[in-house]
């Protein structure tokens, strides 16, 4: 997965649009292509050549996928790995605010068959953002993608609260059917359990980020400009994201920022990746300011998306601060697995 490609669709552009979807749509009429180039440049900030992609051809195409439905389609450079996107689209129906959809490349099917599915980023209840995964698309075309998004936007809203469901007659008797009451309570409990489990799985699959701090599976101390090695295993079921972090336990900033550069490679065949991360970048997590110029933080470096094996994985490299410094830091590996990764072959 190339970070600039991923960040553009799932972080930078998504955040810019969802801050005020109607305002972004209106501005796109005159400044849309320029806004895309600004977002693409921001998504590539601090990345090495292997994670950057040429986005100079990005452009917005107005489309009308269904009666009463408008769309702004943004074709992306062809995706090369799962979670990279074929297209981004803003879609609005019936005068409602536009909604943000992506067509993602999926994990290959049997025989290496290409797969793609639609997903929507939206505001989550109680604040924050969430990603809703849609169905696999029968064809990998903009028309098929927009048809699915248009159908989602045009879906009939639920009826007024309190209205009876069609075909259900309101009770007219004052007698209470206790058997029905118990059966109803049992069914409600079962439905609530299914919804709770389903909601948890949906959050793990779509709502929670891929590169977020989690339980440590390996950790080694690291010093500036000195080579490090860290060894670990993924011997669970299916695939997992083995995320490699620089965890600065004690550091100081320079000009309110901290930056690190270097390279990291892992032993299961990945080439060395150039690393360029900072406290103000998208890879910074758990940042804690400690007064003055002191801080601690988790800085995402890279990941190895690997299938289960008893063979160890070894990651090595060299890092050095280019702004600020650290006096105590570690290279940490955490593992993140979505429900779909558990089933993947």
Write the layout of secondary structure elements.
Elements: H1 3-19, H2 21-43, E1 61-66, E2 69-75, E3 85-93, E4 99-105, E5 116-123, E6 129-136, H3 142-154, H4 178-207, E7 216-221, E8 228-232, E9 239-252, E10 259-266, E11 273-278, E12 284-289, E13 294-307, E14 313-323, E15 325-336, H5 339-343
Helix pairs in contact: 1-2
Describe the 3D structure.
With 345 residues, the protein is an alpha+beta fold. The protein folds into two domains: 3-154, no CATH class; 216-343, Jelly Rolls (Sandwich), CATH 2.60.120. It contains five helices and 15 strands. The protein has helices spanning 3-19, 21-43, 142-154, 178-207, 339-343; strands at residues 61-66, 69-75, 85-93, 99-105, 116-123, 129-136, 216-221, 228-232, 239-252, 259-266, 273-278, 284-289, 294-307, 313-323, 325-336. The strands form three sheets. A six-stranded antiparallel sheet has the order 1-2-3-4-5-6. The longest helix is centred in the middle third of the chain and has 30 residues, at 178-207. The protein is globular. The two termini are 18 Å apart.
